[in-house]
Amino acid sequence: MSQPPGEPDQPPSPYEPPAYGQPYGEPQQQPHWGHQPPGAAQPPYAPQPPYGQYGPPGPGPQPRGGGPNALAILSLVFAFVFAPAGIVCGHLAKRQIRQTGEEGDQLATWGLILSYIFTAIGLLVCCGWIGLAIWANSDNGSTY
After folding, report:
1. 91, 78, 89, 71: which is closest to 118 by C-alpha?
2. Residues 95, 104: Cα–Cα separation, whole Å
3. pLDDT digits over 14-40, tens only?
4. Pair 52, 59: CB distance under 8 Å
5. CA distance 110 to 128
6. What CA–CA distance (Å, rounded) separates 100 from 37?
7. Contact at 8 Å (CB) between 119 and 87?
8. pTM as predicted
9. Which DSSP letter does residue 45 get?
């Protein structure tokens, strides 16, 4: 393949046989991925752009103040799950908060209030079922 003078070099057509003395159809030896042929130097990397200016760093993580009492949180959770356990956790939380000065007094109070309300509702429902069962099984003096 010869180019007329003045024309830029064009890549060879894929339909023409290679002109390097290699038979047509034989695969060319290429280096494996990640490997360079022997004697080749690694190309230089592009320069990194400078890092952006974000201002002075913040104050960092704040020390934890302990947060609310764990039993106070459990009292509020157990008020909806199993109210008698909420009552026990609420009273224990109130005692710990009085002794240690932790936060969470209102959580414990609301846990106690809701636990007592749900326990009372549960007891009324149980008494109602028992009363209904007794009333349904009573003969009312009649015999069949």
Report:
1. 78
2. 11
3. 666 655 555 555 555 555 566 666 666
4. no
5. 27
6. 73
7. yes
8. 0.52
9. P
